[in-house]
Amino acid sequence: PVWLRHLCGQLLSERLLRPNGVQAVVRGIMEGTGGCAGAEAAAVDWRKCDAVAKILASCPQQCFSLEDYYSLVCPQILDLLHIQDKLTARQFQRVATTTLLTMAKEHPQLAEKHLLQPLLAPLLRGSEA
């Protein structure tokens, strides 16, 4: 039903905007995909990663502005690249890179400001020295 879809979207959006909310959402959706083997499981894993990336790249209606959303969510997306557990890290890195690509296509200026500049800052500092 429409009301249930709206309520779920609202709860998901609220969770994403909290500290560590992106990681919690990704963990919740991706849970259980790492233990399978074979090409079919890998395809399911990629489809889930793409679906999560689309969710993360979409600004919720509850957010005041796209700029606010990017400023809250993008640092959390970059944090997904630093997960230590190897199996979890692979999935999280897929989600992070797919989200980054999606955001860069949809809103290049905001993605540059909130994703690419922080991601490339150490490289730029090293090349200036």
Automatic annotation (TrEMBL):
It comes from the Eukaryota. Residues 16-128 form the TANGO6 HEAT repeat domain. GO terms for biological process: protein secretion. InterPro entries: HEAT_TANGO6 (IPR057407), TANGO6/Rtp1 (IPR039600). Pfam families: ARM_TANGO6. This is TNG6 protein. It comes from Eubucco bourcierii (red-headed barbet).
